[in-house]
Design brief:
single chain; 4 helices; 136 residues; two-stranded antiparallel ribbon; mainly alpha
């Protein structure tokens, strides 16, 4: 399969995974954005997809090609996880400080950041990578 096509498929897989994540984890948030619930969740899922594509692009730049997706190294997996965690921390801190959302008492936190959003990008990025690796 053409590697650029794999990148497109990664985006689609990431979108589906993040839609499922956003809709299932939404009850852990108090949404203060003023955007209707479903629209907000869809927009967030598309942004998550773009972030994962961005992470994969950074790993592609490190590897100097897109072919790493076919056979990622342990370091490539670590980069996806690390970048996902760093970006998630930044997004959560920014939006909590701007008052766009808060957590309900049901959200477990680590240093004031929700565990669910903390692991989301890293986990959906890794799952996307595993899925795309299986496609011949």
């Amino acid at each position: 399969m053409i590697t650029k096509k794999r990148f497109f498929i990664v985006g689609f897989i990431a979108l589906i995974l993040n839609i499922l994540w956003e809709f299932s984890h939404h009850p852990l948030y108090i949404d203060l954005s003023g955007i209707p619930k479903y629209l907000h969740l869809i927009i967030a899922s598309f942004m998550d997809m773009l972030i994962i594509i961005g992470i994969f692009s950074i790993v592609s730049i490190k590897n100097r090609n897109f072919n790493w997706i076919k056979n990622p190294s342990k370091f490539d997996y670590l980069m996806v996880v690390f970048l996902g965690l760093i970006i998630a921390i930044f997004i959560e801190m920014m939006n909590l400080n701007l008052g766009r959302w808060e957590y309900t008492v049901a959200m477990p936190t680590l240093f004031g950041i929700g565990i669910s959003p903390l692991i989301q990008l890293a986990l959906t990025g890794i799952i996307s990578l595993i899925f795309i690796k299986q496609i011949k």
